[in-house]
Design a protein that fits this description.
This protein is of the alpha+beta class and 273 residues long. The chain has nine helices and nine strands. Strand 4 and strand 5 (59-63) form a beta hairpin. The protein is elongated and about 90 Å long. The N and C termini lie far apart (60 Å).
Length: 273
């Protein structure tokens, strides 16, 4: 279930708003297991091994090691093992004490990649053993451990985001390098990679130093520069060939980058030759 996740906003949410821990379990589902029910609270599911299917209101959620699944109250959950193997995971169930408007992540269903984090699973194992014990010391340890688990989860998510974001930027650059003459609006590019337009622009600039649109304009102007020097095409024809139907707009962009209009640039370059 794809959902655009702003990790900083999610961290702020779990810092600012309280929640009540209902339980934590280490679950090993036997082969052939299937179940369906209406969810009564929010929960994190951390797959360890095996194959299983998870459907929330008929929407598929990926169950596989290296991912985290988040469920919320009021969803119809259908789950079961795939094949003849067991499915193992850790389940952390809690009740948000803030309304959905204040804490949207706590009240949403999504899954995301977190990679392998041995410390995270060591903490989950410890929590599953002490949660529910009636003594004050165990209760305090459990509460502290939940925040340690969230911290490790966010560290893993940030690590995966950096890897994934860099890969997206490289793909986007490669796409624009090839399709620079086509309509490459930032909204189209962000949709292509399943990201919010503003966030995509921020990530792109972080890794390249320029916005996606400035990168595209630079590509187009460099191609125009070469065409002006090596061909006899008209200014209008060159503009169209790089994606600009309006020759005046193309001329303005060219002058902004090179300090001279395309017509003047061509005259001076021919004069030098």
């Amino acid at each position: 279930m794809r959902m655009s996740i702003n990790i900083s906003a999610m961290m702020d949410e779990y810092t600012q708003f309280s929640f009540e821990l209902w339980g934590a379990w280490h679950v090993v589902q036997p082969a052939g297991h299937q179940s369906s029910f209406r969810t009564a609270a929010s929960a994190f599911i951390f797959p360890v091994r095996g194959e299983a299917f998870f459907l929330l209101d008929k929407k598929q959620i990926s169950f596989e090691p290296g991912r985290m699944i988040h469920c919320c109250k009021g969803k119809w959950l259908e789950a079961g093992n795939i094949g003849d193997s067991e499915a193992e995971y850790y389940l952390l169930v809690y009740r948000p004490l803030a309304a959905a408007e204040q804490a949207p992540y706590m009240h949403s269903a999504f899954d995301t990649e977190i990679g392998q984090n041995p410390r995270l699973f060591a903490l989950l194992k410890q929590l599953s053993k002490i949660v529910g014990k009636p003594d004050s010391n165990s209760k305090f340890q459990a509460k502290a451990m939940v925040y340690s688990i969230l911290s490790e989860m966010f560290i893993s998510m940030q690590g995966m985001e950096k890897t994934e974001s860099h890969s997206v930027v490289l793909e986007a650059k490669e796409y624009m390098d090839i399709h620079y003459m086509e309509s490459c609006a930032v909204s189209n590019l962000s949709e292509r990679y399943g990201m919010d337009a503003k966030y995509f622009s921020e990530v792109f600039k972080k890794y390249t130093g320029v916005s996606p649109m400035d990168y595209l304009i630079g590509l187009r102007m460099n191609h125009a520069h070469r065409l002006l020097m090596s061909t006899s095409c008209t200014i209008k024809e060159i503009g169209i060939s790089i994606g600009y139907g309006d020759p005046y707009y193309f001329s303005r962009l060219f002058k902004k980058k090179f300090g001279v209009a395309p017509t003047e640039f061509r005259k001076s370059s021919r004069g030098k030759s």
